[in-house]
Every structure is written in structure tokens, then in C-alpha cells.
Amino acid sequence: MIQYLVDTSAAARYLHKKSLYPAWMGPIDSGLVGMCQVTRLEMGKAVRRASERDRYFRNLETIFPPVEMHKDAYDEAELLQLKLTDSAAHESASPVDLLLAANARLMGMAVLHVDKDFITMDRICGLPQKRMDTTAP
Q1: Which has fewest Cβ within 10 Å: 50, 67, 74, 126?
Q2: 3-state secondary structure string, the chain?
Q3: Rounded-to-integer distance, Cα 40 and Cα 125, Å
Q4: Which residue pairs, CB below 8 angstroms and at least 24 apart, start in 87-96?
Q5: Which residues pair with 4 in a beta bridge?
Q6: 29 contact partners, CB below 8 Å, separation of at least 6
Q7: Beta pairing partners, 34
Q8: What is the Cβ-side half-sphere exposure of residue 47, based on CA atoms within 13 angstroms?
Q9: Which segments of the chain have a pLDDT < 70?
Q10: Which residues, in sequence order, are bridge partners of residue 66?
Q11: Would you state the pLDDT for residue 135?
């Protein structure tokens, strides 16, 4: 069962040099870390040629199983943004970050990241999160 949704920050680093994150190799290899469509779209920026696209996304799906977006993710993202605005921290999180965080909250998962914006969301909104480079599963 998937327990974490990976952010682009963590996925890109893991794909580049997974040996730097030995504590996460087991959970990722066991399918505990998934990827939702909004992160997949953001990861698509790394593809250089159309001919590489299908292979790149097939590889991503074998590493990070796909997780559908919850039907209420957009509403939840707006609520997160409102809470961040109330604390004058709303400029930190991108729309992709907000949607990923919202989806994780609604699906009962934690965000796996290497991005201080998720720590801010945790502090203000109570977002379950793990920073891949400083915490173990």
C-alpha cells in the first residue's frame, strides 16, 4: 500500500543518484512511494525529445506507482493556500506543490520531498511530510 507521494524535488534527486538515499531505497523499491499526475506532469519537463517520452514515463511508473488525483484535490489545495495566506506564507508553495499536498492529505499519505515549502505547509497546515535527505521512513 502506497504511504508517500513523491514530489519532483525528491523524485529527480532519487533518479539522478539513488545511492545518496539508502534509507529510502527499500520503501521505494517496495512500492510504498507513489507519484500523482501533477508531479508526473512536472517531471515531464525533463524529457528532451518526444521519442524518449513514453520510455521515460514507463520507467517512472515502475519506480513510483501512479496515484490518481482525489476528486476534491483542487478544493483542498485552495484551503491550504488560504491557511498559508493567513500566515503570510502563501508565496512559497507553487500550484503543483499545493495540489500534491492536498492530494496527499486527502489520500492519507505523506509527501516525500527535498523542498522547504512542504516543511512550511506542515508547520502551518499540519501536512504529513518527510524530507528525503534528512529523515528516514
Answers
A1: 50
A2: CCCEEECHHHHHHHHHHHHHCHHHHHHHHCCCEEEEHHHHHHHHHHCCCHHHHHHHHHHHHHHCCEECCCCCHHHHHHHHHHHHHHCCCCCCCCHHHHHHHHHHHHHCCEEEECCHHHHHHHHHHCCCEEECCCCCC
A3: 24
A4: 87/124, 89/120, 89/124, 92/116, 92/117, 92/120, 93/117, 93/120, 93/121, 96/8, 96/38, 96/39, 96/41, 96/42
A5: 33, 110
A6: none
A7: 5
A8: 17
A9: 90
A10: 35
A11: 85
Single-letter code of the amino acid located at 59: N
pTM > 0.85: yes or no: yes
Residue 129 pairs in a beta bridge with: 111
Q: How many CB atoms lie within 10 A of CB 135?
A: 11
pLDDT of res. 65: 98
* Model confidence pLDDT, tens digit, residues 79-102: 999 999 999 986 778 999 999 999
The residues, any chain, with a CB within 8 Å of residue 73's CB and separated by 6 or more, are 99, 102, 103, 106
